[in-house]
Design brief:
By secondary structure, the protein is mainly alpha-helical. It has 16 helices and no strands. The protein folds into three domains: 123 residues, no CATH class; 70 residues, Four Helix Bundle (Hemerythrin (Met), subunit A) (Up-down Bundle); 99 residues, Winged helix-like DNA-binding domain superfamily/Winged helix DNA-binding domain (Arc Repressor Mutant, subunit A), CATH 1.10.10.
């Protein structure tokens, strides 16, 4: 009798427990499943540190970083206001808003960013898409959002460093913009790869990474400029030093125009249009367009337009007319 009674009580307990379980709305459940799948597919990159195990359950590292973020944002706002009031040029203070971080500030931010990602990754391993937890998903999202806020501050605090290095490798304002844009991408990668536990300055690490990238890019550009001039006048009048006194042709623009008349048989439509616009022969205006403007029209990168231009010029070289163009003087 006692065994039967125990089984009946157990059965009643299960029944009452199932009755108390909250009913989840199907739409809400589907939303949770979608969110869980998105989190499981998201790449969470972090640099592991041995102290993360000891910091289990500790909130101090994250709290310290969030307080530091607030201080840095207030400081940046004050500097920005001061610069805008004292400068006639509003753009002159763009790089002065977020100064470089101290070593202690770098350690605080990198420690918290990687710790948050580490904890989010561990918590994500407990997610089950078929039965997602309504508690875990918001916690994981909050941790990832906090880590992105910290990462954003690390980027802003090092943009002055990127701009400083970019100016050293540039010969024009356009070069500064291009190098700064490339440097910002290298900076993002350096932030994700930096191991704060080795106790090095991040600014030193980032400087080496950015300089290496800029030096490689600078060498590539130098080789391209030596092989391929970028305007019609340069293409048809730039000659080796020993031929400087010999004229190449009377009307460089006319020669380019004649070359491009044969282009449809040699070039594909996109290459043809790029050369027309680059040399001011395509459209109402006779002014040559920049790589950036053409790239915006075609929906590709500026570097891709440059590559297509060089490819098209190579295809047209065999069609240069010796009667109009002094090939010997041009070194062709």
């Amino acid at each position: 009798m006692s065994v039967c009674s125990a089984r009946r009580r157990e059965s009643k307990a299960k029944t009452s427990s199932s009755k108390r379980r909250p009913v989840v709305d199907p739409a809400e459940l589907q939303a949770l499943r979608t969110a869980a799948e998105e989190l499981l597919q998201t790449e969470i990159r972090f640099i592991y540190a041995a102290e993360f195990e000891e910091l289990e359950g500790e909130s101090e590292p994250v709290t310290a970083a969030l307080l530091l973020l607030e201080e840095l944002q207030v400081s940046a706002a004050e500097v920005s206001k001061t610069v805008s009031e004292s400068s006639a040029d509003p753009g002159s203070g763009l790089n002065a808003c977020d100064p470089l971080l101290t070593f202690s500030q770098e350690q605080t931010l990198f420690r918290a960013m990687n710790l948050l990602r580490y904890r989010a990754n561990r918590m994500r391993s407990r997610l089950d898409p078929s039965a997602p937890s309504a508690e875990l998903i918001p916690q994981i999202r909050r941790m990832l959002e906090q880590s992105e806020h910290i990462r954003g501050q690390l980027v802003r605090s090092n943009l002055r460093l990127v701009a400083s290095i970019a100016r050293k490798f540039s010969t024009s304002v356009q070069d500064v913009e291009e190098f700064s844009s490339d440097g910002s991408m290298i900076l993002l990668g350096a932030i994700d790869r930096f191991d704060y536990s080795r106790r090095f300055r991040f600014s030193t690490y980032a400087t080496h990474s950015i300089q290496r990238h800029f030096f490689r890019a600078w060498k590539v550009r130098q080789r391209r400029r030596q092989r391929f001039p970028v305007t019609s006048a340069e293409i048809l009048t730039e000659v080796p030093e020993e031929y400087n006194e010999q004229p190449i042709c009377a009307d460089p623009q006319a020669v380019v125009k004649e070359l491009l008349q044969q282009a449809p048989d040699v070039l594909d439509p996109r290459e043809h249009q790029i050369l027309l616009h680059r040399f001011g022969l395509g459209g109402v205006s006779s002014e040559a367009r920049t790589l950036r403007e053409i790239a915006a029209d075609l929906g590709v990168s500026k570097e891709r337009v440059r590559q297509l231009q060089l490819k098209a010029l190579e295809k047209l070289r065999p069609f240069l007319n010796p009667a109009q163009f002094n090939l010997e003087a041009a070194g062709v």
